[in-house]
Amino acid sequence: MEIPLDRRKYHHQPAVDNAALLWWFLRDRRLDVNEATEKLVKCLRWRQKFRVEYLGPDMFMKELRAGKGYVHEHRDLAGRPVMVAIARRHSIFERDLLESSRMCTWMLETALKRLSMAEPPKKPAQEPEGPPEQALGIFDLRGFSPLQADLEVAGFLIEALYNYYPGRTGKVLLVGAPELFKAFWDNIKPLLGKYSKLADFVTVDELRENYFKPGLEPPEFRKDSSGVPALAVKTCVGSAALASLAFAGATAWSARKRGRTARGASLVGVGSSQISIVDAGAVDQLSAEEAVRQLQKQIPRSLKWRGRPACENRALLWWFLRDRKLDVGEAAEKLLKCLKWRQDFSVEKLGPELFMKEMRSRKAYLHTHHDIAGRPVLVVVANRHNVLERRFKESCCMCAWYMERVLDKLRTLEPSGAPEEQMEIEQAIAVIDLNGFSPLQADLEFVCFMVDVIHNYYPRRFARILLVDAPQMFESFWRSVCPMLHHYQDLAEFTTASEVCRRYFAPQQAPPELMRSFRH
């Protein structure tokens, strides 16, 4: 077997001189020389580019400290080295993709050192001698949540196992997988091809009894282990307060499941006095003017809002004051943060040409008709978003651009607004169609950006966010998202397509996605 290009190295030695390596790739490709050559060259190029030979724990210390993966000190009953990954210790919010990829590769290399690689047999019936040629992989999936549904890391691992370490893992045990993981697995399985047959769903007891001598199993699975804590939502902001918020979110979900979703909120209001903006008509005129003057002094003229100094835009100042319940200090802090973000993100220069692929997917759009309260409607269709295909920057640009288009359709009152002006529409609604939601749409990175935008840069601009036809698996994702929303989670209403059509729109004016297939 001849390696083209140059004498590429494998473990610091010329690959063409490694008969066992050549024989391994030939066996993987059923002795097809051309296919084996192509696959081995691809592997060697990747190893050189990824600098595999130089990887070490110092390059992914945060990943190691998290204890999310390691090579077990004991072999299994078949004598195979064992790689262990603990899903609940991984978080899509906290990981660095490059570091996670490096640690995966380093673990595979560590296991590889404990494996043999047979050379071409000199006799037809000769069996390979020495240690096993394949390792055992174990994924501890107890406590799996959307925070661990990391398709980017999963994609890297699949590519590595298929192209760069083909056949080196003889079996993969998926331990204690909850129902949520089954949906995630349905999206990953097609990517694995024939390798999906290596996976085996097992319980902790089956792992102990069938794969290890007593006392030699990984510590997470020993009988004297304290076990897995109850599923906790681990986010980048983690605290006891978040736990209560997550519980509130779960309670809201349960209420929906029992058909008791709160429906008494006014269509015109935001649905909760806890999150309503200060009523412009309930504030003394002199107090309002004085608050605006004080806020003006704290906003530099160099900071612009839609092309002119923000400090001259009384309606904008008054909006942020009302959002912060007339606290000038808090309003100034929030508005300054917003204006600096707009400047850094170049919001004024955004246009569809910057995210044409996102636009063509029609995953979001401004609806032609307003709702029955006269509010503009932003529609988001979840199943048109795919975390594996989207470009994060483009998704964020489109999100900000649509918020600007929503703002174009809204009126923002000034502190001296006349009574008749106070009937103007200041808030929109969002309709999020969750029909067909799967792990491919569980894009926490993008949701984090979107929540930041709605909370900090366009505060209170949505009076209601309608979550339409959410499937069961959305529950876990919602529990992960809730802590980031704070009291904004009260804007969300779980509902059905038929309810939205009936309660929020005139006949035949609801978004078409909600009226198709008799969903109304």
UniProtKB/TrEMBL annotation:
Highest taxon listed in the record's lineage: Eukaryota
Q: Any idea what this protein is called?
A: CRAL-TRIO domain-containing protein
The record places domain CRAL-TRIO at: 57-233, 352-514
Matching entries from Pfam families are given as: CRAL_TRIO
Organism in which the protein naturally occurs: Durusdinium trenchii
Stored InterPro entries: CRAL-TRIO_dom, CRAL-TRIO_dom_sf, CRAL/TRIO_N_dom_sf
The cross-references to SUPFAM superfamilies, in alphabetical order and at most eight, read: CRAL/TRIO domain (SSF52087), CRAL/TRIO N-terminal domain (SSF46938)
